[in-house]
Write the structure tokens for this entry.
Amino acid sequence: MEEDEEGCDECALRCEVLGALYRITSRLAPAATVRAISIIFHSLLDHHGLISRSSGYMEGLSDGVRKTIEGLKGVDVEHLAIFKQFKKESLELEAKV
């Protein structure tokens, strides 16, 4: 029973944190929202010492799978750059209307 109570408390805390995050970011422009979430996320990771500490998961994968993941990271970076350009141009077009 104690384990269920801990899980329930953790779930309630997560809901509270997500609610607070929504209230903070809902007033921001999309780019600022992404930046705010990134800052908060990295702050939490850094606070818990999780940045630059390997979980060992990636090291346990085969070379082919690791290369595929690295390739997908590159695609993700390209996608983000294209999406940022799209948002910029969308905002410029909206401003003209």
Notes: The chain is about 80% helix and 0% strand.
